[in-house]
Amino acid sequence: MKIFVLNCGSSSIKYQLIDSEAKKVIAKGLLERIGTAGSFLKHYSVYDYAIEIKRPVANHTEGIQMVLDALVHKDYGVIKDLSEITAFGHRVVHGGEKFHESVLINEQVIEDIKKCIPMAPLHNPANLAGIKACMTLMPNAPHVAVFDTAFHQTIPAKAYLYGLPYELYIKYGLRKYGFHGISHQYVSGTAAKYLGKELAELRLVTCHLGNGASVAAVKHGKSIDTSMGFTPLEGLVMGTRCGEVDPAIIPFLMDKEDMTGKQVYQYLNNKSGVLGISGLSSDFRDLEKASGNGDERASLAMDIFAYRVSKYIGAYAVAMGGLDAVIFTAGLGENSPVIREKICENLGFMGASLDKEKNAVRDGIREISKDGCPVKLLVIPTNEELVIAEETERICQNIVFL
Ligand code: ADP
């Protein structure tokens, strides 16, 4: 089956056309700056074509049309006709408590995704814009929603409820939801295959460390806790997000800095994290370089980041009553030996000792723990698009081939 996977942001469309049987990407690309005069599409095909088209794209419908045109283009297209695409898989950030798994999209599903907008005001409207545009252009194909929150719906109440009046949970759905579920799910399954074990017998801590970062406790294949919360602001110190802070800091800042609640929220989301601590950058490549040149605040930002990841690993080992493997994934988790070494510094007592030589190797799925360690340390490149394609295929199989 050829599955078209979409990840729509407010001004961008990331996409891949995937052959789900061969698990191969046939074409992929990124359309950026939708709604401005500077829109551009970078499109890559399996036949080694890479093209860049610059022209104004007013909205998601125009953007998706441009991408579909690229797929069937006579020179650099990868398919002859759009009818070759069996189904469309859409990434949706917030599915609330409604969605425990991926679903075929219909009017009711769209309404239910809309109801989750207050919990993901930046992401869900963009995801919906992509869904609606795509359904308008390809009305006869099945469309499937795959949620970032769904994998974490197995988290028990003792882990997802905050120490707040219970009525607030009933009234507003105030609870931990967790994000990056598609990635946590993928790397857990891949780790089990790599270790030659059943997922159902493993206790894993998965560390998705990118610009946004989260850790999950995956016990016997199910998420039982995760560091992000009601929104993706909770948990780890991230590129620009503060992660957990004393909530009393919010009224303190409103008072001392004469800020509104909204301004503090933006401050905690966009000006904090390692960017705020270092005063330099949210990108760890910049921080590593500056730290190497003796910049103390860059070193401090990296230490704070790593310290908090390692605390979560310890906490989740306790939550699961033991630990079989720790998995590192996403931009930073896959590519930064320095950060992995800092995170693993104190894990030796739990039976997880880092092998510095193995840690320095950069390529594919790999073990970076010392030989014979009872707790394995693994690096597993994430592949969220493949999970969305597989989920879309799974949901569509019943309807397409009956
Ligand atoms: P997201 O998808 O959340 O935007 P990514 O998973 O692409 O983020 O991760 C981006 C981050 O990964 C960058 O900000 C950078 O800090 C880090 N990163 C990527 N490559 C490297 C590298 N070679 N060394 C150190 N950090 C890296």
Structure explained in plain terms:
- This protein has helices at 60-71, 107-115, 123-137, 157-160, 166-172, 181-195, 249-256, 261-270, 273-278, 284-292, 296-320, 330-335, 337-344, 356-360, 384-401, and strands spanning 2-8, 13-19, 24-32, 40-45, 50-54, 87-92, 103-104, 143-147, 203-209, 213-219, 222-226, 325-329, 366-367, 376-379.
- It has 402 residues and is α/β, with parallel strands linked by helices.
- Helix 1 crosses helix 3 (123-137) and helix 11 (296-320) crosses helix 13.
- A hairpin with a 2-residue loop joins strand 10 and strand 11 (222-226).
- It has 2 domains: 2-147, Nucleotidyltransferase, domain 5 (2-Layer Sandwich), CATH 3.30.420; 197-384, Nucleotidyltransferase, domain 5.
- It starts with a strand and ends with a helix.
- It contains 15 helices and 14 strands.
- The strands form 2 sheets. An 8-stranded mixed β-sheet has the order 5-4-3-2-1-6-8-7, with helices on both faces. The protein has a 6-stranded mixed β-sheet with strand order 11-10-9-12-14-13, sandwiched between helices.
- The longest helix has 25 residues, at 296-320.
- Residues 210-212, 239, 283-285, 288, 330-332, 335-336 line the site of adenosine-5'-diphosphate (ADP).
Element order: H for helix, E for strand: EEEEEHEEHHEHHHEEEHHHHHEHHHEEH
The tally of strands reads 14
Quote the beta fraction. 15-25%
Number of helix segments?
15
Can you tell me the residue ranges where pLDDT is under 50 for at least 5 consecutive residues?
Answer: none
- The level 1 CATH classification of the largest domain is Alpha Beta
Lateral arrangement of strands in the main beta sheet: 5-4-3-2-1-6-8-7
- Which hetero compounds are present in the coordinates? adenosine-5'-diphosphate
Going by CATH, the homologous superfamily of the largest domain would be ATPase, nucleotide binding domain
Mean pLDDT: 95
